[in-house]
Amino acid sequence: MNQTNAVAQEVPYIPSLFDRTRTQTTKLVAPLLPEDMMLQSMEDASPAKWHLAHTTWFFEEFILKPFLPGYASPDDRFAFLFNSYYVTAGPRHARDRRGLVSRPDNADVRAYREHVDGAMAELIALERDNTPEILDLIELGCHHEMQHQELLVTDLLHGLSFNPLLPVYREPEPMPVTTEVPLTWSRHDGGVIEIGHDGNGFAYDCEGPRHKVYVYPFAIADRPVTNRDWITFMDAGGYSDPRHWLMEGFAVATKEGWTHPLYWWQQDDEWWTFTLRGSQPVALDAPVVHVSYYEADAFARWAGARLPTEAEHEHAFAHHPIRGNFLNDGTMRPMPGSGVWGDVWEWTASPFTPYPGFKAPEGTLGEYNGKFMVNQMVMRGGSCATAQEQMRSSYRTFFYPHQRWQMMGLRLAKNT
Amino acid sequence: MNQTNAVAQEVPYIPSLFDRTRTQTTKLVAPLLPEDMMLQSMEDASPAKWHLAHTTWFFEEFILKPFLPGYASPDDRFAFLFNSYYVTAGPRHARDRRGLVSRPDNADVRAYREHVDGAMAELIALERDNTPEILDLIELGCHHEMQHQELLVTDLLHGLSFNPLLPVYREPEPMPVTTEVPLTWSRHDGGVIEIGHDGNGFAYDCEGPRHKVYVYPFAIADRPVTNRDWITFMDAGGYSDPRHWLMEGFAVATKEGWTHPLYWWQQDDEWWTFTLRGSQPVALDAPVVHVSYYEADAFARWAGARLPTEAEHEHAFAHHPIRGNFLNDGTMRPMPGSGVWGDVWEWTASPFTPYPGFKAPEGTLGEYNGKFMVNQMVMRGGSCATAQEQMRSSYRTFFYPHQRWQMMGLRLAKNT
Amino acid sequence: MNQTNAVAQEVPYIPSLFDRTRTQTTKLVAPLLPEDMMLQSMEDASPAKWHLAHTTWFFEEFILKPFLPGYASPDDRFAFLFNSYYVTAGPRHARDRRGLVSRPDNADVRAYREHVDGAMAELIALERDNTPEILDLIELGCHHEMQHQELLVTDLLHGLSFNPLLPVYREPEPMPVTTEVPLTWSRHDGGVIEIGHDGNGFAYDCEGPRHKVYVYPFAIADRPVTNRDWITFMDAGGYSDPRHWLMEGFAVATKEGWTHPLYWWQQDDEWWTFTLRGSQPVALDAPVVHVSYYEADAFARWAGARLPTEAEHEHAFAHHPIRGNFLNDGTMRPMPGSGVWGDVWEWTASPFTPYPGFKAPEGTLGEYNGKFMVNQMVMRGGSCATAQEQMRSSYRTFFYPHQRWQMMGLRLAKNT
Amino acid sequence: MNQTNAVAQEVPYIPSLFDRTRTQTTKLVAPLLPEDMMLQSMEDASPAKWHLAHTTWFFEEFILKPFLPGYASPDDRFAFLFNSYYVTAGPRHARDRRGLVSRPDNADVRAYREHVDGAMAELIALERDNTPEILDLIELGCHHEMQHQELLVTDLLHGLSFNPLLPVYREPEPMPVTTEVPLTWSRHDGGVIEIGHDGNGFAYDCEGPRHKVYVYPFAIADRPVTNRDWITFMDAGGYSDPRHWLMEGFAVATKEGWTHPLYWWQQDDEWWTFTLRGSQPVALDAPVVHVSYYEADAFARWAGARLPTEAEHEHAFAHHPIRGNFLNDGTMRPMPGSGVWGDVWEWTASPFTPYPGFKAPEGTLGEYNGKFMVNQMVMRGGSCATAQEQMRSSYRTFFYPHQRWQMMGLRLAKNT
């Protein structure tokens, strides 16, 4: 969460951020039926309705209850239903049963949002009382909600994928015809570098402190691995040759029967995939997506390269402006011609561990990131499901190495 | 399914049965939100929406497609989505993923019902072409739908029970104040008796052939075991003393942590239970419900009695008129003062096996009952979730000994 | 256990039975190494060493402790280690960890046997004090041990089968060359018959009371189903066609990948099997063995027949003398030319339920059979791993429908 | 494996190392019965017999087969049975079934060892032909065997712990009476440091290359956490307060019911533990052992400290001579008064990842470490089950964060 201060002159920024973020969430669920909003296809994923309610609860729990005098929740039981994992905020509903909560229904949850939005407007209007602490919390709540926007659409894709009718979330649109983009590399010198957030502007606790790291000279690819590259790997028997794989990865791949990325199937000798814009032929020059860390690592080894560390990734791209194909662009799937930011998250070789000097904040929000720092791998770069405003070059997202349902791809690196 | 013939004079009965059955299903889901209709809380249970669609598919698949010239389904893919387990009717959607089908949505499924109802009306109107075979199939379809009405409400209860808010399906209504009904017994002579359906009127295949069985003299209780009885068992340590239990039953009870019937909890020294009419104190003189065969068997042994066989049950009650608390009565839970029929299904000591001479019919409908004849136990008597019209003294329902979510109770028997 | 009385004139029989039984067990383990005696390949199976100790504990617990004044166990902790499932005899070691008890070692267990055998000799020598109760218990202990002899060799076969070297228990011996035996049938009239043990001589509690059953006319095959028959079923696609199968059976077969009986594999177009006499080509005219109830039932349906009920089986063969290929014959596998008794147990269509009037004896030995009376199926006929002396026409053994590791085969029946 | 060269003058060292190592293994199993050598209590652990055979196979496969002309294995099937995880060395027996291989028996495996030792002696005697490559492989084989010595004794402890009789491996010996050792800290400056093996002498591939790391100033405790410390944590409710725990760790601890280290129990208000020298009261001033990474991490957070990184650990102790309580000392359990090396492995905060510039060697031995580089945590320091000769300050061992059966403890660190 927010380690930095939303300084005085940012005041006008926060209300606008709040409005934009809340509106964007509402826009994302506009095409959904009440039935769609119930889908929970695995414990890792949550129903869209739950995302709507949980992001609302976040503002209620951490801002309205402590700071808006006289605030009353429309239903005190929502605190139990819509807390995700904050143990210090009290008990919570079992994660794998979120899909079994039919009531509050869709209308109730929208009313809950409106109630909280109204109270937030009231609080924000009390300008003179808005301490930096409150503004920081609002900013954090917005970034939190942007993270859930990403989960909302990727969880939805996963949920819809179990429907044999493969429903379409957003109207299909053909992919542009493209030609192969050759793989080129950028070299970087080594030495003591600095990574991590410097404290100016918003960042999550785990992005700091900014700190020194010793890196060795390396080269990093100028584009992510594409579907075309991936099909070459598949055709070369990449999925069935244990020499390329981490032992644990090969065991998972064998047990799960993986022979291609998630959501792919073969039809008349062509590879197809299920996307938020319906079923489509795999676009050869778009970045490969929905591959696990295990697959990404195997691909890199097969390709005679490796995954970059997060320090390398951050160092290489810290000065590239954050432009690319993000959630706001509405493509809802990675597009050909991808550069650095957006389109797909890129698995790094770095486990998610605390930076030197990291200390989780006191209190409930100290649970935000710190308690996940084991067995997960860092990804960098943002995706077509990420809100652009959410991205920074220091941004670290993290997932388990077997997970595939996020917009997960990769970029190669090598020693020089 | 139907082994018997719906003879000529029954013709007016069938259209009326069809209308009543279809209307009753619609009435049952009237209080439900689209979200409620998505709930699937375990593989054994199905969403209400699925029940609506599957019972409709049954008419389409077995009657309209073969017998109504020119009939077209609104969506050919429904045959895949809404087939339950008829392998000879083609492939089908995985049972444990029925809750992940958000589309067709509620409105689509209702339109599907209307489409099929219209076509059925058309077919029924062609009176002169309605062979006994067709009439038999319609009757079977109605009985099939009545079975699914029972599942619909019990699956719904199970689904709602995972919601910490414990939503109410039908407006609560206090239980009548009652006093204990003493347990009395009726004795029956032994000898060669006959059980099973005699072929007059509708029955499922597994209810026949009518056949001779040798039974020994026995006594059977005049009322089911009540909650008051059950609490005595609980207070006597019944759940924790392995001597009363089948070994497998005790292992399941231990693993699942059973110390009371499903949906019970203790609150301020009183037992409460979750019902389709909301949370209520346990009604002491109502039949106990939501107990597994393992628990029923342990109770009977603890009580110095045993469960009746299905032959004993049928023999004892064959001449009692089918009157009692059924689905049509709308209590939605077993009521005090229960006699023979309705309120709760009664576990018998009989595994579900074929009667002598049983032969599953040829074709797809031969899968209706025969392929379940292993590891399940027969229950008799009907319940408050059973359509009264569906009941006969020869009716056999069957469930696994660990299952509890149906309206399952018991009645004692003993040797004399 | 023993419901009957070992009458006075049987006194000399019991000591001899005791000696023969104990010696036979020792003979069975003679070819085994200490390492072999540790094998526990699944929870259902126990190490040979455990069988040696448990059968010894049975005499100690139920006879020596109550009836031999001054008897002391060599180690009081053995009661915990070697009790199988008698909850009223005290706590016991977890069944699935029997293979983790390296000490007491083989030598210790043999010393334990000798200690108990010595004490038993002492007790038996006190002739005048040996009440019928004691003699009955000794007889029961011997029959109990014979049951464990059968488990010992079948558990051993299972344990050895996980060793890729496929070790040989007893020296290989080629199967006789045979020709197909045509399938013939014997017809039986129906009516009220009697089955069950009549109380003369030893029998287990679950074999009685002798009672009347109404059976319909039937025919039963004169020989079990052979490997030749089974291969025809396999070649006809029997394992992959769900129409022949119970739904639950097909699910198990699919999940486990069953395409042939346990211990079979194909090698150069020939079927081979692993036996206690090493790997051998499948003998075409020997009874098929190591098939589950699910498979047996599917075979019977495919063959246009059914499995007999246990009443039919007992009625048909009650007057056939108990002669056949038993454990004593040492073939250690079913042999061609099998008639009624021995070679393979035959799955019946009857779940294991109590006979009318059955009441488990008071006390610990009441746990012997009664607490298993759910979800298991009865087999009749005895096998090549069964001690001949143990068999009676009323003998009921019972296993779960998915189990295959016993010497399990089948015989067909049909209505006439 | 060996990246370095065993240079010419080391020649006499290798034969001696080989003899010592092989003899030590034999000595370790001397107190074991054939039954003990069969124990496999979980997939992670292997039978002692398997360790004996696998370490022998290693010499056969990687040295004798390629380098000793005319060498023949006593049994070609051993390559299948005793390969552990080298996929490029061919198929192998399932890891979780090693305990089901009763034959080859103990005597066969000892004969196999003698056969290979004889052939190795022959090869070693051919001094002039022993290229550095061969000497390096022998050295690697010895270090490999030392690793398996550690597994052998810890696997044995685990296996024996499932025996309710809690057998004693080595004669019990009382722990010395001790008083609490206060916790003191050593401070270290930060900056660019170097860690990793420098290539002189033996090391595994994963210990290099030696490389620069930037570390911040830190302090590290002068002794490991003791049982006394741990009991304070337990008494303070450390196991039940989620605020101290990684979320995943708390979930595992809850599911497994952890409330104390592995092998502990409470008896008359005193903590006892099962060791290779039998059951003993927990020695308060000995290092705590058999705690998972999750527990170690929670303890550190509760204590207001953290675990050191592996760079910090190596940097802090690189110049401490490798002296301490090792396998050779025969205590078989951690002893009070522990300093830096030996007694217990110390969990670090570092996931096991490749060092910059790491490249797994070509060929089968490239599988030695590299394919495990995910989801495991590094431990440093060696234990009372580690051969002293095996240790270096650069030595990295690695285990999953939930594992407890190795001699796993911890040491605290903090920022300064």
UniProtKB/TrEMBL annotation, chains A, B, C, D:
Segments forming domain DinB-like: 18-151
Pfam families noted in UniProt: DinB_2 (PF12867), FGE-sulfatase (PF03781)
Pathway per the UniProt entry: Amino-acid biosynthesis; ergothioneine biosynthesis
Gene3D superfamilies per record: paralog of FGE (formylglycine-generating enzyme)
Alphabetically ordered keywords of this record: Iron, Oxidoreductase
GO biological process, one term: ergothioneine biosynthetic process
Domain Sulfatase-modifying factor enzyme-like: 189-317, 341-414
UniProt keyword Ribonucleoprotein present: no
Protein name: Ergothioneine biosynthesis protein EgtB
Gene source species: Sulfitobacter brevis
